[in-house]
Automatic annotation (TrEMBL):
InterPro entries for this protein: Nitroreductase, Nitroreductase-like
UniProt KW Oxidoreductase keyword: yes
Gene Ontology molecular function: oxidoreductase activity
Protein name, per record: Nitroreductase family protein
Keywords assigned: Oxidoreductase
Domain Nitroreductase: 16-191
Species of the source: Salipaludibacillus keqinensis
Length: 213
């Protein structure tokens, strides 16, 4: 039995250690579009159920739009001071992506058309009916992309803050979010105006349970 070994990625662990929530940003800092695209591209590499990629990223970097968002986010100053606010939206109809996702696998010879049709049928069945499953999957998978986005931003030298405190219904209405998507969180991105407040974490013995409670 062969195994593949990789050197320890100390850079990744350093990025994880250095990422902290930042609420005070330098005003007027613009993130080059290429860098912002690279950050979002990294977020899209996150895993997702059935590879349906249950996410959409609404980038709000226009200052007037950020001013419009400010009261929706309970007037949290970071909204207007950050370089950009990225609204992470979860896809309630991600099953509609299935045919396109798996057709590529068929064309590359990774699966047969019959297997693809079976998988697509199973996915559509899981999304059928009035159940919490589509919403649960939308939030779960979009959250995976969110964490990856924040780590990618930190690796590029930018700071972030995930925000759950905003009026979702109002956001949907004022930013014309289609019914297909549910707002999961807002993430502010920019350059910290001062070092982030250090927060403690519970020791492993308080958060890890092995095998069973």
């Amino acid at each position: 039995m062969s195994t593949t070994t990789h050197p320890q990625d100390l850079g990744l662990f350093q990025t994880i250690q250095e990422r902290h929530t930042v609420r005070k940003y330098e005003q007027g800092v613009e993130i080059p579009e290429q860098e912002l695209n690279e950050i979002i591209e990294a977020a899209t590499q996150a895993p997702s159920s059935w590879n349906l990629q249950h996410w959409k990223f609404l980038v709000i970097d226009d200052q007037q739009k950020k001013e419009q968002l400010l009261p929706i986010a309970y007037n949290q100053q970071q909204i207007v001071d950050s370089s950009a606010v990225i609204a992470i939206l979860g896809d309630l109809e991600a099953n509609k992506n299935a045919d396109e996702v798996y057709q590529g696998a068929v064309e590359q010879g990774f699966m047969t058309e019959d297997i693809k049709n079976t998988l697509v049928g199973q996915i559509n069945g899981a999304y059928a009916g009035d159940t919490p499953f589509p919403r649960d999957e939308a939030v779960l998978n979009a959250s995976l992309a969110s964490m990856q986005l924040m780590l990618a931003a930190k690796a590029k030298g930018y700071d972030t803050c995930p925000m759950g405190g905003f009026q979702r219904d109002r956001f949907v209405k004022e930013f014309n979010v289609p019914e297909r998507y549910v707002p999961v969180m807002l993430i502010t991105v920019g350059k910290a105006a001062k070092p982030a407040h250090q927060s403690s974490r519970f020791p492993l013995e308080e958060v890890v349970v092995k095998n069973t409670f």
